[in-house]
Write a structure and sequence with these properties.
The complex is a heterotrimer of chains A (236), B (185) and C (195). Chain A has 236 residues and is mainly α. In chain A, 65% of the residues lie in helices and 3% in strands. In chain A, a hairpin with a 5-residue loop joins strand 2 and strand 3. In chain A, helix 3 crosses helix 4, helix 3 packs antiparallel against helix 7 and helix 4 packs across helix 5. The radius of gyration of chain B is 22 Å and the shape is elongated. With 195 residues, chain C is mostly helical. The chains are: A mainly alpha (236), B alpha+beta (185), C mainly alpha (195). Chains in contact: A-B, A-C, B-C. At the B-C interface, helix 1 and helix 3 of B face helix 1 of C.
Amino acid sequence: MNIKKQFTEGLITNNPVLVQQIGMCATMAITTTLFNGVGMGLSVLIILTCCNVVVSAIRKIIPEEIRLAIFVVVIAGFVTIVDLLLQAFIPALSEALGVFIPLIVVNCIIIGRAEAFCQKNTITASFFDGVFQGFGYTVVLIIMCVFREFVGSGRFGGGLIDVANGFRFTMDGTGAGIQLFPSQYGAAIMNLPFGGFLTLGLLIAVMQYALKKSAKKKEEAKKAAKKAEEEVSEAC
Amino acid sequence: MNNKTVKLAFVLFLICAIVAGILGVVNELAKTRIAQYQDEKELKALSIVLPADSFSPVKLSPKNFMGKKISVISVMQADNGSGYAVKCSFSGAQGIITMLVGVNNDLKCTGISILSHSETSGLGANAASTAEVGVNFRSQFEGVGADVALAKKGGTIDALTGATITSSSVTNAVSEAIRVVESIG
Amino acid sequence: MLTTILSISLGAILINNFIFSQFLGCCPFLGCSNKTDTATGMGVAVVFVMGLASAICWVIDQYVLIPLGLQFLETLAFILVIAALVQLVEMFLKKSVPSLYSALGIYLPLITTNCAVLGVVLLNVQNNYSFIESVVYGITGGLGFMLAIVLFATVRERTEFSDYPECFEGFPICLVSASLVALAFMGFSGMSIFG
């Protein structure tokens, strides 16, 4: 397992949302402002990394029969820690995400990675897997937020960026964001559940299109490489 | 019940106990911070709705709630005698809204502050927003009496765009809150 | 009392439908909706487990966690209760009602990671519901889930035969059709019950 390959897997070829198609609930529910998206993404990244490391560390000592129950307990533990810390230090985020923070427990990404990856791999590999898978998840959330916020209310970076007194980042969710066009011309429907389903559908469609195209390209490149001499394949 | 089952149950129990122990420590560390934040938030909201900086709770009797369409959580009286703040909850368009309503001694609203809600982001959620649209919406309630109503029902309050339900439930709640204060006298 | 129950029920089934307005339980919703039969089976199983989980978790929260000041363990306790409950229901059905087991059996394990179940329990706590309100909210929330998944399965059976761009194959076309069903459900959001 090399790190570079894990990185592309997490971000593109095996992206948790776009390719594995798991963990959709929160993806569609909270992506209405950039503040929520970044907050949720980073929370999942932290929880996923911690769980991956712990699961991988205890993988040899836990009994096979009750491994799922143990994974769930470990995950619930980390989720509660993050939940409590958010309530104490970034209360605005905890209020904005509401019930979706404790619901990270049943986010299939985390239990899925524990079962599919960490059980069989070393601590280091699991650590990077957590970071990259979490990063891939965060990137998807950010893309969805940016799109929905722009189309829905003509804004960028709601809650996170404050431009009233010079450009700065806010942690308390009060930043009004950058208004790109007057909000009354936005399609407010993108902020509603409809927009969540539609945006994710379009995003996965684009991803499938791109993956198919790159697969085709690779095939063509292989054919070309076969025709050409070895030097070409070395360049690849 | 054989040995294996007992062993498995023991392992699971042990792990639960460890996790619960760690959580207990984290909770202990975070607890004061969370409580402090809640207090600050409440006091901030109170000072928005009433011009006072200290408050004491009012004892309520069942007759204060009779026939009210909102549930009253608590009523605080400003120590400088400027009026009362009613903390109440009611259902909005999507879920429960918790709101603080300031009422002065002439039974006029002095301001409102929404403590928690789950309204649609970008529409109903504007009622609680710190942006201009939210501030303008809430400031309409300053000085209104128990007869407050939405503009489309012949009153003075302009509803938020695309959020008539949220606006009308907030308006009704303000009116009910004033009646609660009236019943306290 | 009756009004509250009615308003909770209508709210959970139509106005705040678990899937179309709160996004709880989307994974099984998209995963188990390719046939109407499967969708119905999943729906019934969810109603059953959500009702039971609401009742048991309410009791545990009120009589164990709150008196001991252990509210911070809620998430952990609830997920364990749900997992154990699903196991017990599975064992019970297998032994005593085999016909029901053969119909629901394969869906039961999937329910543990259905966020609608954990979601409903957490929302009960958040909304300070009483025992009866919690159970009603659990059952009607499940009914809302069932309505959504069965309706959507019929839509999906149709999309099988339609002609859409190749890259929409699989999940994307489902999500796009789900967005249209969600749009239809938005029509209920204007409803308010008894003032």
